[in-house]
Amino acid sequence: MNSEVLIQLDELEACLKAAGLWQDSPISAEALSSVEPFCCDTMAFEQWLQFVFLNKIRDMVAKGEALPTNMAIAPMAEMVLSDHLYFNAVHQCLKNLDSTFAKEC
Q1: How many domains does the chain have?
Q2: What sections of the protein cross the membrane (predicted)?
Q3: Are 41 and 30 in contact (CB under 8 A)?
Q4: Which residues contact 93 (CB under 8 A, 6 or more apart)?
Q5: Which of 3, 14, 71, 77 would you call most buried, defined as having the most Cβ atoms within 10 angstroms of its Cβ?
Q6: Is residue 29 part of a domain?
């Protein structure tokens, strides 16, 4: 499963870049210290995907840690990105990831 997850994470990253939702500059440590779901008080959802989600899951895979088995990120994308031109592509990447993680249940 880990190789499948890494491939899907790479696809999500490529999709975010193609959609113009990728940030080249680093995010502040203060923004990363949020304890709110999706760091919604300190960053945009696409920033959370880039700076928190992608990094955390890749780190977990690299360390051989157990990956989450109950994850639903696609619905959040529906709430915050539905008006974006590339919503369908980003949403599909997230639905694929949600499905892959659910297979472990």
Answers
A1: 1
A2: none
A3: no
A4: 8, 11, 12, 15
A5: 77
A6: no
The residue whose two tokens read 């500059």 is: 25
Give the domain extent around 78. Answer: 2-22+41-102
The model's pLDDT over 21-68, given as tens digits with 9 standing for 90+, comes to 999 999 999 999 999 999 999 999 999 999 999 999 999 999 999 988
Burial of 19 (0-12, 13-18, 19+ CB in 10 A): middle
Establish if 28 belongs to a structural domain. Answer: no
Q: In the prediction, which pLDDT does 104 show?
A: 61
For residue 36, tell me if it sits in a domain.
Answer: no
- The answer as to whether 35 is a domain residue is no
pLDDT of residue 69: 84
Distances (CA, A) of 101 to 10, 25, 52, 69, 78: 15, 29, 17, 5, 19
What pTM does this model have? 0.92
Q: What is the largest CA-CA distance in the chain?
A: 37
Structure-token pair, residue 104 = 């472990």
Q: What is the chain's length?
A: 105
